[in-house]
Amino acid sequence: KKDIPVANFIMHEIHCSRNIEVCRYCSELIPKSEMKSHIESEHVQVTCKCRMKIEKCLLKDHEASACPLRPAICQYCDIQLTFNKLQDHEIYCGARTERCGGCGHNIMVKDLKEHPRVCG
User: Fold this and answer.
1) What is the pTM of this model?
2) CB neighbours of 24 closer than 8 A, spacing ≥ 6?
3) 23, 26, 51, 73: which has the fewest Cβ within 10 Å?
4) How far is CA 93 from the centre of its chain?
């Protein structure tokens, strides 16, 4: 997968075919001597804390963007909880009220950002 001068191509091709292998899982070029450890370290099935089985090499991305148990922050109170509980929490949390210092009305927390535009 690299440009090789024409004069060196045959020797390069022979060297690669003897020493390099394409991983059947990720298509990366791996030295043949390291293929077993590559598969064991990158493609072994692991279990996420959400109980989903996934290849080890995909676990970090899963934990960061797809895992229902990944950390999430409430937009209203800034507490951290798991992503799968965020929506229910924000519905409850956003419905709380706080007294507006300008007009004295009780305003739902979810409406506080917009309230100054309509506050008398």
Assistant:
1) 0.66
2) none
3) 51
4) 26
